[in-house]
Amino acid sequence: MGFDKLMADLGGVPLLARTVAVFEECQQVDEIVLVVGNLNLEWGRSLVGQFGWQKVTGVCGGGARRQDSVLRGIEHLHDCHWVLIHDGARPFVERELIACGLDAAAAAGAAVAAVPVKDTIKSVDRSGFVVSTPDRGTLWAAQTPQVFRCGLILDAYRRLETEVTDDAQAVELAGSPVKIYMGSYDNIKITTPEDLEIAEAILRRRTAKGVT
Description:
37% of the residues lie in helices and 21% in strands. It is α/β, with parallel strands linked by helices.
């Protein structure tokens, strides 16, 4: 059986539910649309009732690519000026991080949570040989939330002709500037069972410190 990260149990709560709760409790968020796999639509809807989320206005199925899924989610929103796009598999997002993203985007139109990389990064060719070693001081690891003016990200995605790995890249390709704001090293994305073990350790540490 495959590892379904969004359904994974984290501290007795489905991972997706732990993530959504932060946005549900954030005063600056008015509306939430959940984008899940087409086979998980009923499960997603059941979470809304189970946890009593009042801000979730839609649960929709994703597309073939990440960018298709994001576009479907945005198109389900109602008259939003700002859009926060967040990976459901990043359960340690905090309300302060959401607020910082909105502040950064207000000035630039687009903003991305990120953290400075700690490791030396190597650029490698297809044969596995090092091509170059970029200056680590200029490298940041992108996270979510990524925050955009609604019209800006919609236009970028509707004009997109190539595959991108995050939402900011679509805006970059459209020629618009994107501001980096400081993320959190706790704000990990859970993709594998090993990531879940790391998340459980983070949760224990945060619980011991009274951070939820």
